UniProtKB/TrEMBL annotation, chain A:
One of its GO terms (molecular function) is 4 iron, 4 sulfur cluster binding. The keyword Electron transport applies. Transmembrane segments: none annotated. SUPFAM superfamilies: 4Fe-4S ferredoxins, NagB/RpiA/CoA transferase-like. Keywords: 4Fe-4S, Electron transport, Iron, Iron-sulfur, Metal-binding, Repeat, Transport. It comes from the Bacteria. GO terms for biological process: lactate metabolic process. Pfam families: Fer4_8 (PF13183), LUD_dom (PF02589), LutB_C (PF11870). InterPro entries: 4Fe4S_Fe-S-bd, 4Fe4S_Fe_S_CS, FTHF_cligase-like_sf, Helical_ferredxn, LUD_dom, LutB/LldF, LutB_C, NagB/RpiA_transferase-like. Residues 319-349 form the 4Fe-4S ferredoxin-type domain. This is L-lactate dehydrogenase complex protein LldF.
Automatic annotation (TrEMBL), chain B:
This is L-lactate dehydrogenase complex protein LldE. Residues 10-90, 138-222 form the Cysteine-rich domain. It holds the Pfam family CCG. GO terms for molecular function: oxidoreductase activity. GO terms for cellular component: cytosol.
Amino acid sequence: MRTAAQPTATGLEAAQPVVVTQSPFKERAQAALCDRSLRQSFRGAMDFLTAKRAGVFDDPAEWQALSQLGEHIRQRALSKLPDLLEQLEHRCQQNGIHVHWAESTEQANQVVHGILAQHQATQVVKGKSMVSEEMALNHYLAERGVACLESDMGEYIVQLAGETPSHIIMPAIHKSKAQIAALFAEHLPGVPYTEDVDALIQIGRQVLRQKFLDAEVGISGVNFAVAETGTLCLVENEGNGRMCTTVPKVHIAVMGIEKVVEKLIDVAPLYSLLTRSATGQIVSTYLNLINGPRRPGELDGPQEVHLVLLDNGRSQAFADTQLRATLQCIRCGACMNHCPVYARIGGHAYGTVYPGPIGQIISPHLLGLQATPALPGASSLCGACGDVCPVKIPIPALLTRLRTEAARPANEQPHAMRGQGANANLRERQLWRWWRWLNTSPIAYRLLTWLLSRARHHLPKQLKPWTQVRTLPRPAPKTLHELMRQRTGRTS
Amino acid sequence: MQDVCAKQVYLFGTCLVDVFFPQAGMDALALIEQAGVRVHFPDAQSCCGQPAYTSGYPDEARRVAWSQIRLFPNDWPIIVLSGSCAGMMKHHYPKLFERGTTQWAAAQDVSRRVVELTDYLVNDLDIQLNDLGPAIKVALHTACSARREMETLQCGLALLDRLRHVQLMNHEREAECCGFGGTFSIKHPAISAAMVADKVQALLDCGAQQLVSADCGCLLNINGALAHRGEALQGEHIISFVRRRCEGGV
């Protein structure tokens, strides 16, 4: 039990304090809603990104055609997923890449740590990888005496602050310039406080440059893995990804099994959709195509490349023809940028590695509905996410489906999902049964609506939580049914 | 011979219109009849089933949907007074039933015939409006489901455009959700409150003297928030506004 703090910027000023039992999600959301600076940061950043994206998708016909192609490529890949993964493994091995399979994040962590142990590596640099966040890899390695340094500027900031990313593309989007300046001044020896963005970036780069040279192993994610050629594609803007994958003598790439595409030619349209949807860029500064370790005569590149393929609940989504669409995602973050809920509560409120609409549909597969019961419901189903999704994932439909899975008791029908029935609630169920009965019994329906109209002046004025920020609507003196009957001269 | 019965339509009021905006139903009836179309209002109609559907209770939604589907046996258009309910009937009814069954076929048939009211007035009836009211500044709120599922944004705009003395006021974040979302506003009241607060502010800032919408859930949400703030501005169903203008009202 807690007393909800009063937000100041939400229009809740006049609301009475209420004592409510909150879910952890609601508590985090409430805290975020009360944080004026956080809300300004997100709103500003999301508006900026939304406008940038709109600027590069200014031709509706081209957008339509390209996103249809993207959807098709992703669906085709998923329809042959097991075969393509085998082909990817085979081609990668031919290219000299060591391929490892991991069913759980624990297994994936063990694989990564095993490789590090083989090389007695204690210094690791990492390019931005949401899968490694999913694995909580940094934490796992730190416990085993390996320091893993984030090399993406946003991730580096978040790591310095001891936080997690709040956005999958822009991990530190929740931080203001001043907060970053303070963070650098506090944590980096000899660095003065400055809010000059260019200076801050230079400071970060200098710290990282030496780390790239010192690191024994570089870890990266994968944006697309090409089954046809055994190529790992890495999209980035800062060059840190290229440093991580070429400077250290060992490179370990970690990816979710859904990231595979069939052909090299599939990469171009997906890449275009990704950069334009994510940051409004026509192309990113770097696109790395990694085909294996350094070959004889080559001047750079690692001597050893490993690929870790992680399932972690993805095959559960894959097994269901509707839920499979979740795996079409190319992790552009456009759904977050356009989500009115995300824009107001930010990424941390979701309490999961992947926040926002995509997080709401993928996290229940990764963690089970038991661990994510609030996520499917935390959407007004406005459809903005589905609208902007470059590969046409029907996010609102998937959220509705997950709500059904969460509400359906675990003993009812075969388990489609881990944690099915997480929100099963007998009272709510009874309420909907009663609602159904009412709406399928014309006489009862008309009687109740008639009673509501007659009791309009005697209905309660307060009905929380609705009336915390709204007055309760008052029924009209006569229902439409009554007016219609009067008109046609019929009587009941 | 009068040809008033050449065209016939069903009117689906929706539960919110029934209880909170019944005059909108009567106004729709009047305007459609003026165009020479006979309107049928099946007496046993209640709710489209959307609340249960979006809350994760498709079985209950299916039962309600089936009770409604059977009320429209003739091959006439089904005119729906609220955009999101029209979206439910058009896009989700067929999904509720097993493909190939007779129920599914009936749901498909209803889905095919569902038309949102403003869409019907503008695109089917091509209704001509004689605006007798004084000059007025109006803001239009379109629900997300109406805007996206039903694509009726242009119809609402077109309808207002046919009223000569009405000046449309654009507001900031027009395309953004008002925060209603059915049970979302109950389950996540704080987030919903933040959303409706921004929507209300934008509507007030745009200087509109009148707010109209073809979506009753949003209207309950926005009107409630406006009233809670003590604002005079209140939204009404677009059809009531249109009819009043044609009869010389403000």
